[in-house]
Amino acid sequence: MEGLTIDFPPLPLPQGREYFVLRCDGQTRNVSLHDYDAIFAIPGLYEEVFRERLRCESGEVVSRAISFISAYKGMSIGSFRLLEIGAGNGVVGQELRRVGVGHLIGLDVSNIACEAAWRDRSTVYDDYIVADLDCLNEDMDRWLRKKIFNGLVAVASLGFADVAASAFRRALSFIQPKAFVAVTIKEDFLRGDDRTGFSQVFGDLRQNGFKQVFWERHIHRFSTSNEPIYYITLVLTNLT
Ligand SMILES: C[S@@+](CC[C@H](N)C(=O)[O-])C[C@H]1O[C@@H](n2cnc3c(N)ncnc32)[C@H](O)[C@@H]1O
């Protein structure tokens, strides 16, 4: 990107503590990879850091999953009415539109993410809600329930300091009974010894009639010290 440089520290850091060194306008500062507000505030910086430098491909993987579920359910992608949680600046939403999703509402806790989505991808979302899924007010809860979503999407937004398992459960309550759920999630959060609560949420979904119809392990991105970070793309749908 013109006018700024991005460098990664040489030492391996745990996911959640990674950062990059940003030199911009004669100033140098460390920016945490989880400081989305700082990143979204600069047009193109999220794309440069995550997609170009750290080779994140989650958007493409989830689009494949959406095409799969369309064929599986015998529904056109145009008939999908999706809620995308932790939507960020719309990189994933853009992919969902590219494959033909008919109706798309983004939701994110960050006002700066919302502004970045309208700034950089003004035609992607039908609506974009700024709200914390952990503490939605009643009006917003009611509004979301009326939207008749037939799918929920969460890409790289579950866990760490982002959408917690309890907040994800809340989002699940907004979708229709036969809807599908498509997520990309760190593989550790699906293991039996997981402590984040996500493994339990997916177990409960299966207990409630959801069937896992798509599973793909993939490199979500590379770490700042160039190690692959694996995520799972999962799609579950309720057949009962
Ligand atoms: C890693 S970013 C992913 C952005 C986008 N899904 C992508 O893959 O490009 C995680 C996003 O989740 C949002 N987020 C974190 N906690 C949230 C919450 N409680 N409710 C809604 N969004 C949240 C953050 O603001 C951030 O935009």
Could you walk me through the main structural features you see in this protein, from its secondary elements to its overall organization?
By secondary structure, the chain is of the alpha/beta class. The protein folds into two domains: 4-53, no CATH class; 58-238, Rossmann fold (3-Layer(aba) Sandwich), CATH 3.40.50. The chain is 31% helix and 31% strand. The protein is built from eight helices and ten strands. The chain has helices at 36-40, 45-53, 58-73, 91-98, 111-120, 138-145, 165-172, 198-207; strands at residues 4-7, 19-24, 27-32, 81-85, 103-108, 127-130, 149-155, 175-186, 210-222, 228-238. The strands form two sheets. The protein has a seven-stranded mixed β-sheet with strand order 6-5-4-7-8-10-9. Helix 3 runs parallel beside helix 4. Bound molecules: S-adenosylmethionine (SAM). The site of S-adenosylmethionine (SAM) has 22 residues, from helix 4 and strand 5.
CATH class identity of the largest domain = Alpha Beta
Distance between the termini: 50 Å
CATH fold-level name of the largest domain: Rossmann fold
Strand content: 25-35%
Query: What structural class do the secondary elements suggest?
Result: alpha/beta
| Average pLDDT figure | 95
> What is the name of the CATH architecture of the largest domain?
3-Layer(aba) Sandwich
Q: Assembly type of the shown chains?
A: single chain
The total tally of domains equals 2
- What is the strand arrangement across the widest sheet? 6-5-4-7-8-10-9
Number of DSSP helices?
A: 8
CATH superfamily of the largest domain: Vaccinia Virus protein VP39
Characterize the largest beta sheet: strand count, sense, and whether it forms a barrel.
7 strands, mixed
Percent of residues in helices comes to 25-40%
N-to-C order of helices and strands: EEEHHHEHEHEHEHEHEE
- In total, the number of strands is 10
Shape: globular
